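Methods — Computational structure assignment.
A single polypeptide chain was analysed. Its primary sequence is given first, followed by the predicted tertiary structure written as structure tokens.
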Amino acid sequence: MKRTTGHLSEKNGRWYGVINLYDADGKRIEKWQSLDLAAKKGTKTEANHRLNQILERYNSGDLYLHETMTHAERERNRIADMKVEDYLAEWLESYKGSVTKATYDSYEMYIKVHMIPFFKPMKLKVREITGDEINEYYAHLRAKGLKGTTCQRHHALLHLAFKSAMKRRIIPSNPVDQADRPKAQQFIGSFYNADEIRALLDCTREDPLHIVILIAAYYGLRRSEVVGLKWSAIDFSGRTVSIKHKVLQDGSDLKGFDVMKTKSSYRTLPLIPIVEQELIAERERQAEMKRVFGMSYNREYEEYICVDAVGELIKPNYVTDHFAVILKQNGLRKIRFHDLRHSCASLLLANGVQMKLIQEWLGHSDISTTSNVYSHVDSESKKLSARAIERALGENDEGRKEGA
């Protein structure tokens, strides 16, 4: 029988003994034992003494594994001995109710397509994985051609999964903290200038996507946010637009969500006069279509703004696909629909709007996101700074010349 060993660990201001026990098959089982002692200056010696007393009882036969292990401890050790790929799959299933279906689907793809095939040949247990193996995984992703931002999403997912194991005291620390967070290349999106936006809006006036493009261009909304706009979000008397609902597409299915991407995604913005005029015209058009098509008009989506001639909600995938067709048919420079969001931000920057205000307009949770994405187009504010320092120093130069 292997000798019982252990070490001290501090958690939540208390001393614990982390004891290495072994079952009949020689399999190590880790047990956390409270030492009933506050972890403060001068108590470590006493904590060591109490731990040694416990270890002595195990090694003398006074205590046995089956007498002290709780169900929770057995469960923790079961998970600690799982293979990493099995743990990730089991954790994802337990986490399913905490995220939207779209997020779950992307997590599932990361785990099944990338993580399981990589970690399975390594035959690593959860208790054995370190930052070295995780760094190898990041190098593997980069070798496959994945971009830095995508690797960062894998990093965030792994951190979340192992953070759960750490909080449950399955592992003492998060191995992802020992790894190097992948670096992302600065994103430089395509964007239209004001003339190109105007040309786009002019050529789509009779297109069902016109109102979608108009709102995206003026407000920089995400595709799901534009399609998810309801008439109830427009306050014509108070002249505001509230972004609080989105629509996602899963195959041919459409699903509306009042849960937005982040807390900052919920925002209320001023109703711009030209957008107000277009919305009033759109409301009148929909009323006319209801009259013309009668019973054939789909009233399921009456609360939504972005519907086609027969009342069908404009699908997110259709927005992406048809937007590309519009550009090609009208000889316009190729960009993605999402680049209208970048175009909105770049126009705000070019007209002297501060980065903090743009963050709030776009609904970014962190200003660093706004700064990282749009700093490359912030040329106008840099020119203003250059002119300001030139004036300041130029005036001093002139003053010196006059005094000479």
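Note: The mean pLDDT is 86.
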